[in-house]
Amino acid sequence: MLRLARDVLLVGFGTYGQFLVTLVTLPLTARLLGTEGVGLVAVGMSAYFLGSVLVDLGATQYFAARVDDPDITEVRGAYAVVRFGLFALLVAAASLGWAAGVEGAARMILLGAVAGGIWSLSEDWLLIGRGRFGASTAYQAAGRVAYLVALVVLLPQFPSPEVAMACLGGSSIVTVIATAVDADRHFGRLVPSWRVGATLRTAAPVLASRLLLTGYGQGGAAAYSTVLDAVSLGLFSAADRLVRAGQSVLDPIGFALLPRMTRIRDGRAFRARTMQGAAGCLALAVVAAAGLTLVAPLVIRIVYGAEFAGATDLLRVLAWILPATTLTSYVTTA
Hints:
By secondary structure, the chain is an all-alpha fold.
């Protein structure tokens, strides 16, 4: 049990550590950019998650469960070709949009998608599949620290939403390089494979599911930008970021259980373990939602300041999304 708790904490920081860094940088961003700037950053962050899912097909958990298969070299090569190809399409779209002079929310969507795509180029899924959570956490923490340093240094000098998103995307390169070097050392040199048909067919239903989940979750602000102004999006983002931070603590339970569950060959035992994990996730999420509801006014005032007081009631409503999103994330991973 203690080892499982340790793995949950490690995966939580490694996979969702951006939320912990966000909680540190939110006061800086809020005070430098105001509600309108925070709203545009929210659009970029929304696109960040969508871009990440589009590039890795939302199937990293599935492929992580296959790291011990005899054909892992072929799987890895094909998966890399697919990811880099999709990332190239996002870069091309962003370049065309920038050249055409798009501004505001549209520009942030393009920039955020590219930033998320960079993150999904990492080979972290191989480390997760082998249960090497400590190494995964270390490499991802290095990227998050680079983001924190870049934001603190650059944003006061160039206060704009584009700079904030560029810092996030650029810092991900640290993690991409670190995981690639580690993967080459433990799995051999990456050999691209153009036999991508099986990869695309396998990932297609998973991608559809992840896009739907991300679309109403982390990716929601991109859709909301078509009907809300930047100030309203800023207030929404203030509440949403705090809820996502809470979710980041709860989601890793499924990831930490993944290597253990893949070793269970008996169907009845697998279902029993799944139900136990689901009940535990749900109970923790209800407690977290209740706590966030109680401290909402204090948290908003401390993190964002008086300008964001209008986000308090919204935070109290959004907090109760946690039980549903936590259970959904766990079941999807399992």
